[in-house]
Specification:
about 160 residues; about 40% helix
């Protein structure tokens, strides 16, 4: 499985540690991690996975592979700016949003429009009404809860 981790390039220490733990758990499960490849949530998630010898893929907004954080094993320079979010979303089997600002909200929205499952940890709160498919958007409190959901879905091929 390929797990997309989305979140801000700047965050507080609590959310950075959550991203780090999530990255470790992704790698421990033998899954690949894909993200925007830069700083903040992306870097800490990559660091966690990297330390567990996991595969980390960074889809970079610019054209320079050296802009990737040091824990990205596979940097992909796109030169397409925020449009690179669609590469992340389309490649990921599931997305986990941690914290984040408008770029993260954009990724969540795009993922839901493409019927991708999104798990939020300390991220945007979306009103669950007729506009939000409650079978696609889930809020959890920890990386362990996110991994538990992903394992359930993977068990049933969803």
């Amino acid at each position: 499985m390929i797990i997309g981790v989305i979140g801000g390039s700047q965050s507080d220490q609590e959310n950075l540690e959550i991203a780090y733990r999530l990255g470790k758990l992704i790698a421990q499960n033998g899954w690949f991690l894909i993200c925007g490849g830069l700083t903040g949530i992306m870097e800490y998630a990559c660091k966690g996975a990297y330390e567990e010898d996991g595969i980390t893929i960074g889809i970079l907004p610019g054209g320079d592979k050296s802009s990737a954080n040091p824990y990205v094993k596979i940097p992909i320079a796109t030169g397409i700016g925020l449009a690179r979010n669609f590469i992340i979303i389309n490649t990921a089997d599931v997305l986990v949003a941690i914290d984040g600002r408008y770029g993260t909200l954009n990724e969540i929205s795009a993922a839901l429009n493409l019927s991708k499952k999104v798990i939020a940890i300390n991220s945007w709160k979306l009103k669950k009404s007729g506009e939000i498919d409650t079978n696609l958007f889930f809020e959890v409190n920890s990386p362990n809860e996110a991994i538990k959901l992903i394992k359930e879905w993977n068990k049933y091929g969803t």
